[in-house]
UniProtKB/TrEMBL annotation:
Domain HTH gntR-type: 5-73
Residues that span the membrane, as ranges: none
Protein name in UniProt: GntR family uxuAB operon transcriptional repressor
CDD domains: WHTH_GntR
PANTHER family in alphabetical order: TRANSCRIPTIONAL REGULATOR, GNTR FAMILY, UXU OPERON TRANSCRIPTIONAL REGULATOR
Organism: Biostraticola tofi
Family annotation (PROSITE patterns): HTH_GNTR (PS50949)
Length: 252
């Protein structure tokens, strides 16, 4: 069993070494994710992040409905590039952190939000809807919505925490590569609907509702990544995050 910290990087390096040594020649298909996961004793989530790392290096190609293929034999420069990103946090770990942090922040915001906060959130959702309608891809209304929820707590430290997590997410090459596969109009509309549910609960001062809607919003993102990752499905897109229920109880 590999160490808990940065498991995907360790597996990615090991797979790269096997490719370099000829164990997996160029043009061959890597074993299925489940087999790799069993070999290393980890979840498919970790394997997915390892393969994503190799895809970013252009060592492998994840082909829709077919599998993962070796397209290039990496040299020393690939190892140097990988070591440059040793501090990279996996996309699933980032999403899990957001779910834990932002759900509790949303619940607290239900108690603390002012009329001005609610109005700013309403305007931001209107902008998000316009961005979707015009197919604008470079807007930040999604990020702004989540930051405004934190602003509504009237706690500067909570706002800085959310900003820090989002900054880490935006600077993650793994996350950006992953997100490019799910940035569709249909899904953007779904996330907008989730945001509208959160705002409606906030207006009602519904503490538990805010918590649950924010939790479910990020769970929906996670579940979507699962749905498009079934290798046997025609819409297979090569990415898998296993659902890990963290908290199912009630706030006290």
């Amino acid at each position: 069993m590999l160490q808990e910290k940065k498991q995907y990087q360790e597996i990615g390096r090991d797979l790269r070494q096997k490719i370099q040594s000829g164990h997996y020649p160029q043009g061959t298909r890597l074993p299925p994710e489940r087999n790799i996961a069993e070999t290393y004793g980890v979840s498919r989530t970790i394997v997915r992040e390892a393969l994503l790392m190799l895809e970013l290096e252009k060592t492998v190609d994840i082909r829709q409905g077919s599998g993962v293929y070796v397209v290039r034999i990496p040299g020393i420069e690939a190892e140097e590039a990988a070591s440059f990103s040793d501090s990279e946090i996996g996309p699933f770990e980032l999403l899990q952190a957001r779910q834990l942090i932002e759900s509790n922040i949303a619940a607290f915001a239900a108690k603390m939000a002012t009329k001005g906060d609610i109005e700013n959130l309403r305007r931001t959702l209107e902008q998000e809807q316009r961005d979707i309608t015009t197919n604008a891809r470079h807007g930040n209304s999604d990020k702004r919505f989540h930051e405004l929820i934190a602003t509504a707590t009237q706690n500067e430290m909570l706002l800085e925490t959310v900003k820090s997590v989002w900054q880490r997410q935006e600077s993650s090459a793994l996350w950006q590569q992953l997100h490019s596969h799910i940035d569709t109009t249909a899904l953007r509309l779904r996330w907008l609907a989730d945001h509208q549910n959160i705002l409606a609960a906030l207006r009602r001062r519904d503490v538990m509702g805010c918590y649950q809607y924010m939790w479910q919003h990020l769970e929906n993102v996670k579940n979507t990544l699962m749905e498009i990752s079934d290798a046997d499905a025609p819409e297979f897109d090569g990415y898998l995050f296993e659902s890990v229920p963290i908290f199912q109880g009630k706030l006290v």
